[in-house]
Amino acid sequence: MKPRSSGKLGTESLARRGLPLQEQIYRRVRAAIADGRLPPGERVPSARALAGELGVARGTVDAAYARLAGEGYLLPRGSAGTVVSPALHADQHLPDAERATMPDRRRTAPLPFQMGLPALDAFPRTLWSRLTAQMARRLGADMLGYPDPAGLPVLREAIGAYLAVSRGIACRPGQIIVTGGYQAALALLARLLLRPGDAAWFEEPGYFKARYALQAAGAQLVPVPVDEQGLQVEFAATLAPRARLAVVTPAHQSPLGVALSLPRREALLAWAETANAWILEDDYDSEFHYVGRKPPALKSLDAGDRVIYVGSFSKTLFPGLRLGYAVLPAALVERAVSALATERFGEDALRQMVTAEFMAKGHFARHLKRMRGLYAARQKALAQALLDAFGTEVRLTLQRGGMHLLARFPEQGEDAGMMRRAAACGLAPTPLSSQYLGSRREHGLLLGFTNVPETRAAETAALLRRALHDPLPARD
Amino acid sequence: MKPRSSGKLGTESLARRGLPLQEQIYRRVRAAIADGRLPPGERVPSARALAGELGVARGTVDAAYARLAGEGYLLPRGSAGTVVSPALHADQHLPDAERATMPDRRRTAPLPFQMGLPALDAFPRTLWSRLTAQMARRLGADMLGYPDPAGLPVLREAIGAYLAVSRGIACRPGQIIVTGGYQAALALLARLLLRPGDAAWFEEPGYFKARYALQAAGAQLVPVPVDEQGLQVEFAATLAPRARLAVVTPAHQSPLGVALSLPRREALLAWAETANAWILEDDYDSEFHYVGRKPPALKSLDAGDRVIYVGSFSKTLFPGLRLGYAVLPAALVERAVSALATERFGEDALRQMVTAEFMAKGHFARHLKRMRGLYAARQKALAQALLDAFGTEVRLTLQRGGMHLLARFPEQGEDAGMMRRAAACGLAPTPLSSQYLGSRREHGLLLGFTNVPETRAAETAALLRRALHDPLPARD
Fold first, then answer.
1. How much is the pLDDT for B2?
2. Which of residues 357-396 of A touch B (CB under 8 A)?
3. Picking from A30-34, A144-148, B331-335, which range would have the lowest pLDDT averaged per residue?
4. Dist. CA B404–CA B375, nearest whole Å
5. Which one is the CATH code of A108-122+366-469: 3.40.50.300, 3.40.462.10, 3.10.20.30, 3.90.1150.10?
6. CATH topology classification for B6-89
7. Across the interface, do B343 and A99 touch by the CB < 8 Å criterion?
8. Pick from A378, A380, A394: nearest CA to A464
9. Of A109-123, B235-249, B337-351, B406-420, which one has max mean pLDDT?
């Protein structure tokens, strides 16, 4: 056993602007693993030791370690301490041809309950490969130069046609920009629209990854509570009437899953027009509304042209594609395209061609339809399995769509502890409390079901029950 | 003939921070063309009218229009006015299958003298397509998830091996990040390292596109003159001793082509260590040093770990690939990877796999060797053709490599006028004076030769001569 290695994690104090301490510790450990300072099998410093060294609470390090364990980076071994997962570097011992297929040292299937991933086992990979090969042959010499920074016209047209039919959004292809995913669109728009100190409404609870891009742009986030009608718009307007931006998930609120009601939608649009503010509509999983009528996009009601609609192919196709898009109000098109040209100069053509072809040939609509059926079945199976396993110990919130469900365990107390127990068993639920900015937090587990096949729902629910009922694994 | 259409260009005043007025007008017109407000064949407002409306000098609009003409967006038709190039939307009348191969509405071959493009006609497209198809088949379900935000390990290893052999740089793959090109790396690093108002040394003249990303991060650019030994380091240290960053092109200064001398390199490194500043080494065309010994990378001398080395595949492979990389000092790795995760979450795997395979199989080294031979021949042919066409009217500066040459025409006066004349004939030289930040500017034309085949050198030089000797085309 090698000695403990706090030194390898760096000794700078934790003071990065805009990142919670837990996130900083998480990233620091991950970086040390990624660049080889912490090799597989190496023991990491105990949570207590690291907390003391960094001057943070023990619970903060615990939470970061639990997340790393949940994602397969760390392996808690009870009283033997926690080590870097020995499986991580397995690819280094493979022949070259095999290694070229590795996206990452983490060559792991999605863990049960992991959020934000579509069903990777159900993606039509063979079809996608075939289209890619076809499009690669069409890559003419005239396509080798700099691409249009705003996106390939053929893809922007396909996105426009899809949004018109599926989301009721009328826009010209010239208003659509192609980005490297939701996160890239959000970061770009935050830099474009916000000056340091500008207030931005943020759903409480809300999609935690969106925080960082906003905070990196200097935003002052105003947490706005969400109830069964969605964001409490009137309350927000008294909290921060002069906010520059509101970031919302109207179709299925992330993470609670509720839809923003029509009166709230109207109030939000009216506020934005009056305040000359922008609304960023994150329509992240509207495609997976599989019971009843889908709520229309907020953008479809946007007479005043204050809504920036942002979509992503990470959930509808796959996250590794790194493509998303935004529909911009006319007043922002030119500035956004300028910023894209300054910051990056567009996405490469091939991926865009393949995606456009996938859409134009009808594969996209067929795939979404198939996924809606699959997710409805997986949601139902997991919900039933949880009820079977936990009985009255669990309260489930089922929305009419989405990719995860919310399970509350009133007798269990803090969800960070539950997450730690589950992570030790190879499960990756997300604590609801981690999605809050303020100190009033509800507790529960967010359980992604997209990668839990129906046939494994029962055993997965049973494993969660065992994990939650076991005592916490001993830690050094 | 439709009426003039200044209205379609928007009536907001020109006040974007960090962008010169000419650039703003250029982008505004391009945006109006891209989103269809200005269709092909439509007459654009006269330079005089637009200048009056926007409250800028006539020459500013002239320069923007000349650039747009040079890039094929606008067609000047003498007294009939200037129109949007009627060829631009030709793809809209093609069948779907053909249109899917269009990267952009501008489906044009590179124009003679265009800078910054490799020889697109000489890229091994068939081989690249084949590797892409192979790699697409290897895209396993485990690769559909989120990629490593720092880049595919197999590509980072290939880059590391290449840099060790070719540039004398010793680094671990963990210090290498993969980015969406040079511009993306620069924008990321500028945001990471600079606070608004921080001084940054910038070569005078220097690569103008790099300005914007630095200025967008709030940098105060300090122009530092370049002489025959490169950047005047001692002078810079008196101008702005406390600068946070120096952006340099030590191998072949952009655009003058000189190499930074060894004493200057040592002085630069010593300054950075003393001032605790960072050096960003843009090694943009070191691969194309085709006479004598290649100067080593500044990074190879960097005992104090102050140099960030940035490279791009845009010149060595093709710009449409949108991939570049940076070698980071140990102290910056973690912050950069965090920022990559916040802002984008990495590049998609397929392109990285294809690039890594291209490198690992030796194609990259072979391609570069072939291009060095080709560019040496094209440079020599164009230089000879210019001397034949212009005789004593031209003074050529030939460096031992690079992708463009500098031609001075002492009798011609301002280079913006020369550029306008050349653009009207379908040539796309870059005025040397446009590469300066300050008001003391030298004049001359930067002539990219990578896309001028030897067999066309004579006619291209003759066309330039006719263009420069003709009176300026009449403008309305």
1. 39
2. 357, 360
3. A30-34
4. 9
5. 3.90.1150.10
6. Arc Repressor Mutant, subunit A (1.10.10)
7. no
8. A394
9. B235-249
